Amino acid sequence: MLIHRYYEWKLKRELKSFPDSLCFMITGEDITDAPQKPLEVVKWCKNLGISRVIFHINTKKSESVDSYISSLKKISEIARLTLHTSKGEEVLGEGMDVFVAVGMSGRNEIASAVKKMAEEGIDPDIVEEKTIDSYLEFRNEPDLVIKTGGNHLTDFLIWQSVYSELFFSDVNWINFRKIDLLRALRDYQTRKRRYGK
């Protein structure tokens, strides 16, 4: 335990810059196995001064939400939680922004944005990136996306995260520790962001 504390202290000392917005992509199985982990992670991020945290829970089993919804809502005790589920959007608490999206699809979001533009008669010749941005449901552009468990990314925020830095952790969500977060942040600060240039 002492060695872990020392390593955590050492990693913190190496960190000079932090992402403003951080996104975690996890599976339905991850959240079922460790429903308290998002609250724990939010506490870490809050103490580090990160402004916004996003969690995408990749699941098609909407009925499974009931088993972990109460754990997710506890985030509102220390932050402003915006919770998106198949039942709609709910905003709770105040403080740093935390967004949790359960079972949302980036492809469906873009398709929905295009449909809305068509319904409103938007001239295709005037459609630019900013136009599409304004029709998206999620306006968050994460600086860093973390995927635990070594699995592939989901399609969530596929438009918004095009310039995001990606970090793949071999550690499964249930075993994800503060040290693993600090490692991801250390990796982030070594990168030169080009924003597609």
Descriptive labels:
single chain, 197 residues, alpha/beta, Undecaprenyl pyrophosphate synthetase, 7-stranded mixed sheet, 7 helices, 7 strands, 20% strand, globular
Q: Could you describe the 3D structure shown?
A:
- Helices cover 35% and strands 20% of the residues.
- It is an alpha/beta fold and 197 residues long.
- The chain has one domain: Decaprenyl diphosphate synthase-like (Undecaprenyl pyrophosphate synthetase), CATH 3.40.1180.
- A 7-stranded mixed sheet has the order 4-3-5-2-1-6-7.
- A hairpin with a 2-residue loop joins strand 3 and strand 4.
- Helix 1 runs parallel beside helix 7.
- The radius of gyration is 18 Å and the shape is globular.
- The model has no long low-confidence stretch (mean pLDDT 83).
- Pfam families: Prenyltransf.
- GO terms for molecular function: ditrans,polycis-polyprenyl diphosphate synthase [(2E,6E)-farnesyl diphosphate specific] activity.
- One of its GO terms (biological process) is polyprenol biosynthetic process.
Beta strand %:
15-25%
Q: What is CATH's topology name?
A: Undecaprenyl pyrophosphate synthetase
Structural class: alpha/beta
Low-pLDDT parts are none
Distance between the termini: 44 Å
Strand segment tally: 7
CATH homologous superfamily heading? Decaprenyl diphosphate synthase-like
Please list the strands of the largest sheet in the order they lie side by side.
4-3-5-2-1-6-7
Number of domains: 1
Could you give the order of the helices and strands? HEHHEHEEEHHEEH
Query: What can be said about the biggest beta sheet?
Result: 7 strands, mixed
